[in-house]
Amino acid sequence: MPNKLGKITVAGLGPGNPEMFLNPAIDAIRDADVVIGYKYYFQFIETFLKEGTECMDTGMRQEVQRAAKAFELAEQGNNVVVISSGDAGIYGMASLVYEMAEKTQSEVELKVVPGISAFQAAAAKLGAPLSHDLVILSLSDLLTSYALIEKRIKAAAMGDFVTAIYNPKSKKRYWQLYRLRELFLEEREETTPVAIVRQVARAEEQISLTNLRDFDPEMVDMFSIVIIGNSQSYISGDRFITPRGYYSKEEKEGRPGPLIMQESFRTIASELKGLDLPLETKWILLHCIHTSADFELAKILKVQNDAAIKLNEYLQKGGVIITDVTMAQSGIRKKACERMGVEVKCYLHDPRTMELSEKHGITRTQAGVRLAVEEHPDALYVFGNAPTALIELTDLMRSKNIQPAGIIAAPVGFVNVKESKHRVKSFRELPAVIIEGRKGGSTLAATIVNAILALEDAYDLKPGRDV
């Protein structure tokens, strides 16, 4: 009479800490006649084994032998448990056992018991990095060609998926992680959060938070999981957070402007890949291209003497902004100015301006600058229309040693426009933002100011707070 067939249960043990075993896995181990697995994992299940249970180790990288032994013993009537780290269905033994059953036409009963995968355990330690669509990748090329792995890396990067990396590195396989970083930087911002979690849920556990720019593959070994955020992910203190979208939904229903602006910035940034600019300059450029859709600005926008940082510091103290025309004045965000205590003034329609203009035979914008210099010599001066006004200010700076906080030089037109901007460059210690050539305009001048007012948001590349 033939032996009654036993069964095979493939059980996930989680990341290695018995406190993270799921009850079905514990029950399966307690009922087992034989447990088959890699010997390193037996230390974690000792307290759950019944007397007489045999533990069989087939050695590392002997998964096929493990599965074959499991079927041999189960067909003899044994209750066999094949243990896998993490979840047995994620880079574990489950698929091999089912494939072998198909190929051998075995009638042994099969069952899979889930476990907590390492990426889930790592995520719980980090906060909430996996709250949106995600991809899990293994960099091991033992069973998958590297050409296919790279194709999948590119797809994950392009798709803006949160990405968890298994088998990121070994002694012989080290360069692939460098290549992954390179591919992700082609699609993601340098500030994209990256976490390295080593020996998760074990005594040797180590957690490191960084970003794509500073991510060093040398920090990673075969016991590590790497998690890369998406374009919305951020780090707050020691927490790695990927928004699910609830707050964005509220903003979308009430304030669509910031969301549209953020999407535009992502599009622009993707087209500016490879342009080596300081973050503060890039921040101003992103604002200007968002306003104008003119990518030539990448060539003609110049930031002199750390102007973005220095002018932001000036405005943080409640500085004064002088504009050449009211259109530039009206384009500067009122909420930002209120938040920082900044006063924005334009003298174009001041009654004294007309009187001064007629008396000296100069333009009203020139006259407005003369009045402004008398009352606010150290203000930030913003020019988006009138080159004559900019020339007036530079002349006064030379003749009367006026030292404004800085200049935004973006007048537009054909007469004296280029020359007015060249004058600004001659003040080598002056913080200035210049749109070279004929291009410019009041809208761009105001946009540059708005970027400087919101400079603290540049480091997370999240525009639109004061829209």
TrEMBL record:
Gene3D superfamilies xref list: Cobalamin biosynthesis CobH/CbiC, precorrin-8X methylmutase (3.40.50.10230), Cobalt-precorrin-4 Transmethylase, Domain 1 (3.40.1010.10), Methyltransferase, Cobalt-precorrin-4 Transmethylase, Domain 2 (3.30.950.10)
Location of the Cobalamin biosynthesis precorrin-8X methylmutase CobH/CbiC domain: 260-454
InterPro entries: 4pyrrol_Mease, 4pyrrol_Methylase_sf, 4pyrrole_Mease_sub1, 4pyrrole_Mease_sub2, Cbl_synth_CobH/CbiC, Cbl_synth_CobJ/CibH_dom, CobH/CbiC_sf, Precorrin_MeTrfase
Example of a GO MF term: precorrin-8X methylmutase activity
Ranges where the Tetrapyrrole methylase domain occurs: 7-215
UniProt xrefs under CDD domains: Precorrin_3B_C17_MT
Leader peptide range in chain numbering: none
Keywords: Cobalamin biosynthesis, Isomerase, Methyltransferase, S-adenosyl-L-methionine, Transferase
Pathway(s): Cofactor biosynthesis; adenosylcobalamin biosynthesis
Swiss-Prot/TrEMBL GO biological process terms: cobalamin biosynthetic process; methylation
Name this polypeptide is given: Precorrin-3B C(17)-methyltransferase
Organism: Labilibaculum filiforme
